Amino acid sequence: MGLNKKAQLKIQQMAFMLLAVTLFFALVGLFFLATNISSTKGEFTSIQKENAQKILISLANSAEFACSNGKPNCIDFDKALIMKERQEYKGFWQVDSIELRKLYPKSEKDIECSNGNYPKCNVLKVYSKSSRDLVPQQSTFVNLCRKEVLNGENYEQCDFGLLMVGFDENV
Amino acid sequence: MFECKRRGQEEMVGFVLIVVLVSIIMVIFLGISLNKPKTETGQKSEEVGSFLNTMSEYTTSCAFNYEPNYAKVRDLIQYCSREEVCLNGNNSCDVLEQDLKEMLDLSWQASPDREVKGYELIVNSTKSLVIVVGNKSSSYVGDILGLPNGVQVDLKIYY
To answer: Which string of DSSP letters, residue by residue, matches A25-53?
Structure first.
């Protein structure tokens, strides 16, 4: 009888030990999984950002936006204004919104560019799939160049600005 | 007595095995975490390079010889090193400093409570120009823009 009780105790001890070891490994596994998932999410965001940067560079140097002087990161502001009117380009870009923003010379407030106020404006919304602001927005520095005339002579005025693209998170 | 000692030894071996197993898992996990490529720094460095290139192509309000022959920032650096004066009477170095300060401020917006803590721009030419804003830290991303006549523009962004 005493032996039987001792054996029962041993079995109980073993069961507790097995439970403890299983719990321990389950916890370690959970911790590993949680960190792995968060790092995968971070990597995904990083890859998304990297892709967005590549799209930005190719967009800035595309024939539809690039300056005729062939300089990198140079956007022809006159061309971009025309692109805004071109409905056939909607869906052509791999992004959900394209915006140009003049940073310097600085403007007191945001004035959206149109045929009526150009070039006395600082924001040009070339294309937007949705009326709301799309996130995450990625940007790169660009020169916004336009042709000007002074004293009967043509010259190129290049301002300092940003090319921004947006992606719809729900897609 | 012998039986009891043997059982104790078995339990110790089991415990050591578990410890070794857990340690191996931890080392593998640490190795994987540390081996991840740091893509973020590369992107930031490209951003600094892009800023320098774009900044150098900005058309200033300073013209030489005739108007509208307005100088780009890259040309204005050369004119400044020769201490030339713009057609409108402004000092080329003053115009250069003003434009650079404004572009840096609007682009990086350094502040202790923001991601960018500070920045330092050094124009290395015969007449050097240094712009320092905010706090310097050991974590920074930088780039150098090379211009004719050995002029270099060095920008460091502190995070």
So the answer is: HHHHHHHHHHHHHHHHHHHHHHHHHHHHH
